[in-house]
């Protein structure tokens, strides 16, 4: 069963929702339905610059990767930021998370990006095993101020 990695499309809405909800449950987050609708509309709005890839097997969406590009003072081109990565529990461990990340490499190369980067929770051991196999752990520490 080979997966197809492709850009998200407007007609994916109903098949994307269970993945999005699974992602939110994993991170113990609850968002109002209005925020989910806003997120979806941004993903399919070419002007908003929030993008998505999906993994599809036999017509079923089984993974997602949401990303955007970040401007930098260190390069002429933008870097690719992976915001959300999720693979359905029914197909985890089959390399789909890695396939989505590697597909982002191609998107980044087309953009002229220096790098693909992302963050994860320090205790997300399963994801970190994947991330350690495809990337370098940064020495930077993240600080956040809520406004």
Task: Describe what this molecule looks like in 3D.
It is a single chain. This protein has 147 residues and is α+β, with helices and mostly antiparallel strands. It has a single domain (4-134), classed as Aminopeptidase (3-Layer(aba) Sandwich), CATH 3.40.630. The protein has helices spanning 13-26, 33-43, 96-111, 125-134; strands spanning 4-7, 50-57, 60-70, 79-87, 116-118. It has a five-stranded mixed beta sheet with strand order 1-2-3-4-5, with helices on both faces. A hairpin with an 8-residue loop joins strand 3 and strand 4 (79-87).
Q: What is the H/E string?
A: EHHEEEHEH
Mean residue pLDDT: 96
Work out the helix count. Answer: 4
Spatial arrangement of strands, main beta sheet: 1-2-3-4-5
Q: How far apart, in Å, are the first and last alpha carbons?
A: 46 Å
Q: What's the β-strand tally?
A: 5
Main sheet specs:
5 strands, mixed
Total separate domains: 1
Overall CATH architecture: 3-Layer(aba) Sandwich
Helical content (DSSP H or I, runs of 4+): 25-40%
Overall form? globular
CATH topology: Aminopeptidase
CATH level-four homologous superfamily name: Gcn5-related N-acetyltransferase (GNAT)
Alpha carbon gyration radius: 15 Å
Quickly give the structural class: alpha+beta
CATH class: Alpha Beta
Strand content: 15-25%
Low-pLDDT segments, ≥5 res = none
């Amino acid at each position: 069963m080979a997966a197809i990695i492709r850009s998200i499309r407007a007609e994916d809405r109903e098949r994307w929702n269970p993945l999005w909800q699974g992602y939110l449950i994993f991170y113990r987050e609850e968002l109002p339905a209005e925020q989910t609708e806003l997120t979806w509309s941004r993903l399919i709005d070419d002007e908003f610059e929030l993008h998505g890839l999906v993994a599809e097997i036999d017509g079923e969406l089984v993974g997602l990767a949401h990303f955007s590009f970040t401007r930098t003072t260190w390069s002429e081109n933008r870097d690719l930021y992976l915001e959300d990565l999720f693979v359905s529990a029914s197909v985890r461990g089959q390399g789909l998370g890695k396939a989505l990340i590697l597909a982002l490499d191609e998107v980044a190369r087309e953009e002229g990006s220096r790098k693909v980067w992302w963050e994860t929770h320090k205790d997300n051991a399963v994801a970190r095993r994947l991330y350690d196999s495809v990337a370098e752990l940064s020495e930077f520490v993240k600080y956040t101020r809520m406004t």
